[in-house]
Amino acid sequence: MNGQIFFLLTLMTVGLSKGKLVERETNRTERYTLEHNDISSTRYLGEACVSSGACRRGNRDSVCHHGVCTCLPFHMAQNATTCLPTALLGFECFAHSQCSLRVPNSGCIDGTCQCSRGYAPYRRHLCLPPARLGHKCFGDDQCRLSDKHSYCKFIIPNVYGRCYCDESAEHFGQSCIKPRLVIGSRCSTSAECKAHIKNSLCHDSTCVCDYGFTIGWTDNRCVATLKGLNENQLNFNQRASIGQPCTSWAQCQAADFNSGCIDGYCQCIAGEMQCGRNNTGCHPLTFQCRSSGRCISRSLTCNGHADCEDASDEIDCRQRPCPTGSFPCGAHCISGMFICDGIQHCADGSDEDRCQVEDGEDCPGNSFKCNDGTCVPEHAFCNSIVDCSDGSDEPEKACKREYRKKKSGEYCPVKCANGRCRSAAVLCTGQDGCGDNTDEKHCEICRCPTIIHQV
Predict the structure, then answer these.
(1) Partners of residue 235 on adjacent β-strands
(2) Distance between CA atoms of residues 10 and 4, nearest Å
(3) Confidence of residue 24 (pLDDT cuts 50, 70, 90)
(4) Among 24, 28, 303, 411, which residue's CB has the most CB atoms within a 10 Å radius?
(5) Average pLDDT of the chain?
(6) By percentage, how much of the chain surpasses pLDDT 90?
(7) What does residue 37 show for φ and ψ, rounded to 5 degrees?
């Protein structure tokens, strides 16, 4: 009896062993077949694989991971045959996920990874949420998301600080309240004055009435000095501001009643001690609009868009010499911001000539020279985007608040009151390029002293 049981168990053991050998041999055969096919076949994203080589034939940026074709690390699948690299802020992109997978709260905007609306960029890897007054912050932009009149006062320089109201506003509750401006109030830009007082402007950091207007019976009202006319009705083509060529006294007095056409130029009748042809009040690196006397960034001249009320920044581009900040291009002039930008704007390509110079040579006018000899547009200096391959257009000390004293040979065309260096392109653009608005302070011509008539 026991012998029979033993015989049956032996047969069962042998049968199981043979079954496992058959199964193992079948698996080995199937695996060999799969590997053999995998070597010569192409695998796409999401398909089964044995080797990474088969995946790369379907997509060069993929690997075989756990038996499935997947994208390489720091890449994302766009479709079955394409893996796109994820990107940090400021880098080129084609899809939102390229940015958001690497930097939360960012997206692909105009072909570049940028922070989503309501977030402030911090270096290349973070998009910061708004920071309220008194709360921790890492930059001015983060505070201004909550209140436009606030800034980040650093506790540890260039590391972190807390949000406070700027000098022009008062802390009230959880907000920075900017007092209503009147004639005589302190100001940074003409836009501040115009927001509270019609026909006013900011001159010498003070709100005053615009040209052709005088203070009314209240300190927040400017009335026309030329009876029956207002600023909008004046013929700009017949006006000429201080320092501009003229042919008659009427041209000059239409812009400033206390000026006249003297020696072919509009000049103050009472003398030029504080205001005159050689001292208009505008920053010398700006362009002066002929009629209004408003000064704009020289980078805006000859850019194909009228930024002056009388379009003098574009009309003058058809003659020689070219306006300040522009570049001669055949029979016309183009904006200096187009020089060495990598795109040919002149028919003869002269705007892209000499954009790689040797030691001792200078780049074309209105462009910046990198340490490696490459020339880039003037506005590339300290614009928070690295344009030079060696990063010399973004020197940390000069571009930040740490800049104190200009060393011999150090490039700093415009020094802001807060110590930062900027290119001349930021002057009088209507935007705060310095971080303290000092680049927007000298954008209106001076006013001639009032003539005192003897009785």
Answers:
(1) none
(2) 10
(3) low
(4) 303
(5) 81
(6) 23
(7) -70, -35
Q: Residues 6 or more apart from 168 whose CB is under 8 A from it? A: 149, 178, 186, 188
- Residues 301, 366, 416: CA angle, nearest 5 degrees: 90
Which residues share a beta bridge with 262? 265
Above 60 in pLDDT, residue 302? yes
Phi, psi (deg, nearest 5) at residue 106: -125, 170
Domain ranges of the chain: 130-179, 313-447
Mean pLDDT over 235-244 rounds to 76
* Residue 277 in tokens: 């042809």
Residue whose C-alpha is closest to residue 352's, from 365, 368, 340, 364: 340
pLDDT higher than 80, residue 387: yes
CA distance linking residue 419 with residue 428, whole number of Å: 18
Q: Are residues 446 and 258 in contact, defined by beta-carbon separation less than 8 angstroms?
A: no
Label the pairing between strands 414-415 and 421-422: antiparallel
Q: What is the mean pLDDT of residues 40-61?
A: 87
Q: How many CB atoms lie within 10 A of CB 182?
A: 16
Contact 310, 289 (CB under 8 A): yes
- List, as one string, the DSSP characters of 164-202: EE-TTSEEETTEEEPPPP-TT-B-SSHHHHHHHSTTEEE
Cα angle for residues 139, 142, 146 (degrees, 5° grid) = 140
Q: What is the pLDDT of residue 17?
A: 53
Of all helices (H) and strands (E), which one includes residue 96?
A: helix 96-100
What average pLDDT does the segment 343-357 reach? Answer: 84
Residue 202 main-chain phi, psi, to 5 deg: -100, 115
Q: Strand 259-262 vs strand 150-156: parallel, antiparallel, or unpaired? A: unpaired
* DSSP states along 374-440: BEEEGGGTTSSS--STT-TTS-HHHHSTT--SPPTT---SEE-TTS-EE-GGGTTSSS-SSSSSGGG
pTM of the entire structure? 0.48
Measured at the CA of 439, the angle between CA 403 and CA 183, to 5 degrees, comes to 130
